[in-house]
What does this fold into?
Amino acid sequence: MSLILAIDTSSGTSVALIENGQLRAEHNVPDTMKHAELIGSAIQDVLARAFVHPSQIDAVVAGRGPAPFTGLRVGIAAATMFAAGCGVKLYGAVSLDAIALAALPTVDASKNQPLLVTTDARRKEVYWALYSGLNEYGEPIRVDGPGVMKPVELEEYLLDRNVHPVRTDLDVSATNLAFLAEAQLRAGTVSDDVTALYLRAADAVEPKPRIGKAVSG
Amino acid sequence: MTDIKLLAASEDHLEAIMVLEHVCFGNDSWLEETMRFELLADHTRYFVLLEEDKLLGYAGLSKIPGSEQADVQTVAVSPEFRGRGFGRKLMDRLLAEAKTLKATDIFLEVRADNLPAQNLYETLGFEHIDTRKRYYQPDNVDAWIMRARLAPSNKTEPIVLGIESSCDETGIGIVRGNTLLANVISSSMDQHARFGGVVPEIAARAHLEALQPTLNQALHDAKVSMQDIDAIAVTNGPGLAGALMVGVGAAKALAVASGKPIYAVNHLVGHVGVDVLEGDLELPTIALLVSGGHTSLLLVRDLLDDVTLLGETIDDAAGEAFDKVARLLGLSYPGGPAIDKAAASGDPKAIRFPRGLTLPKDMEKHRYDFSFSGLKTAVARWVEVAEAKGEDFSMADVAASFREAVADVLTAKAIAACNDHGIKRLLLGGGVVANARLRELASERCAANGIEMRIPALSLCTDNGAMIAALGAQLVMAGRAPSSLEFGVDSTLSVEMVQTV
It folds into this structure.
């Protein structure tokens, strides 16, 4: 296989470089506010520590979230332009799947419970997805989600379906995102869709048009 | 990590260097006398990397005067500190020094079995050009001769790619020096129409989607590839924070991927700097920048070093006022063209709408500031009253009178700034310059006051990437250092901050 650069800003700023199942270098900053400041030097740092020139990279994978708006876009924009700058393939993957990839091996398979992955969606909501295990290629099998709900609603949703999952509070890392892409390449399921998963409409209210009403302010 | 310093080496470091020399090179170590000669020679430059007083590494360069070649003499990093980028730090310093000494090529030898070092040198632009068989004895290992070309950076006519994403336009432009090569704009205006104004989140989402196709089109139009680009420039403010972040994240990744320097530049100064693409930008000048997001009056004595904000809107931008008034008149978005059209047959003197901040008491404190909020409310009230009375009023007259009030106050204050400062030049920029009446009135008043007026082509007046590229090219040509990779966005960036370093 090849050298894969992964970028995920669905939580902090996370960049990683892997080669044939081996981590070459990673750079993780948990700060959820400074993506635009950190992204350039994070990529540069990973390349420098792995002694890799951008031209050696074979593919770039972007974490698509779901995540709250602003930070998520920085990583997808960076991944898109990095791939364009090097003229290499660009792939997108669901960030929650990368968490599942890391968490599933710790789940006791004999109990036959699904894995619930949740992340902070702000506004007192969580992003979530359910997984039933890894397939033969090492890809997490997502059986429900991704979605966004209030925690109480999510619990009701699971109870209604008689689902009693194992939970993980792992955070997303670009390293796991890269391993996920590698598994997807093996499985032939890798996607070039890098659109951001906001799972919420933009905050905007259509104004009441028109003359005749009191217009002020 | 504690403080790590990279310093020019002196004889004081000799003892520590010799200790590390033996650790790193064993039997191949130089003699102390050789090392002393190297450190002290006129044609060499040695550097040490220190953590407090502890020597982490050292490196040396040789450049014989009159020769255009430089040689890397040695690079050593203490084994316990390897893999942390210190070798690269030392090499970066040697490369910079070689450039300063005007070397055109730099050479080095490396063991054929030292893969990490070869990888590092390759990432620094070295290529394997020759092999010396069994050069290293007694190990019987070949030496690779590697060379990097230190082409002088293109400062006469740099090809600069500019990225603009401060509002609802994703712009990527490419210039060569003062020549426009490409100016591609992808606007999300249609998506904002039903909201009657730019929705920041929608604008930011649209930027992300537009990046790749806009870049491809710009490279295609300019007939260049990423390898031809000498530098990348990007707007880092002022503007909508979430929108700016998309452009900044994109530009930084593009810079790292292509190994090009990046320049973080000011959006508003870009509106002024764009005039270099249309001929000589004559300075000093007063600049009036009017758009949906800004209404600013600038005094520009030097594009890169002396830009002063004389005044700006204290509430709505002029373009915003057009949008809001268009909405209350039931006209379409964006408001500027809609009101221009509606006003065509109207009488601009039919209704005397107020001119914000023009009363004597306001002129003391806000001589060059603008206010359009009161004007918008006045139009709303006038319409309400007329409707309440059941009067049959002329929409054309309302539109023409409103437009006249905006154009009047904008041009009056701009002309006053020119006259007050004794500067007989006025540059207009920003999307509202598309407004026919504003151009007409500015032209009349400039002529009456003996002021030379300049208006760049409309495609360069609205937000665009070419203006960012043009300003970036000015910085490159002036020999300015690039911005660091760590700069952030600043939604209220001061116009005096032309480049964020």
